[in-house]
Design brief:
Rossmann fold, 200 residues, 12% strand, 8 helices
Length: 200
Amino acid sequence: MTELPTLTKYVQEYVREAHATLDAPYLLTAVERIVSILLRARAEDRTIFFFGNGGSASTASHFVTDIAKVAGGTEGRGPGKRFRCVSLNDNIPSLTAWANDVNYAAVFSGPLKSLAGKGDVAVAISGSGNSPNVLEAVRTARAMGLTTIGLTGMGGGKLKEMVDVALVVPSNSMQHTEDTHLITLHLLTAYLRDEQPVRD
């Protein structure tokens, strides 16, 4: 049996690995493209749909809470216009109805067909990039003319090649991947709250 390192070494290694996932050029490149899409969606009164499973579901819910309350409006220095956004995993009765009456792969794509329109945005969150219901929702979004964003890790899975913009965390750890997704979404919320007319 392999002996675990001391707690101190374990914490230091976890923090070192977490830092490494944030200290790579991919992050700025992806965030720049995502910000552009989100700002356009707000300007055009488009709806942004977020979805994911497990920890990714909680990240989707968390970001919708933050961006809807904080970004834009009177609390920010933006144009005083709020984002229109929905987390598809928050309606538990709808989710269970689709899972029970159709199949689990349809839990996001089904509601998306009813709620979304051309020009809206879909933000798919999947640590592995291979969740069947997330991939099915992205297929639906693309067919409907939505702009698609994917947050993933572990090489990106199938999701990486299906979306317009992919943020692929360079890690094979689900913990570091989900940590980075949440940090990225907090970064986006803060920027969209504090955005300035003149950029760097």
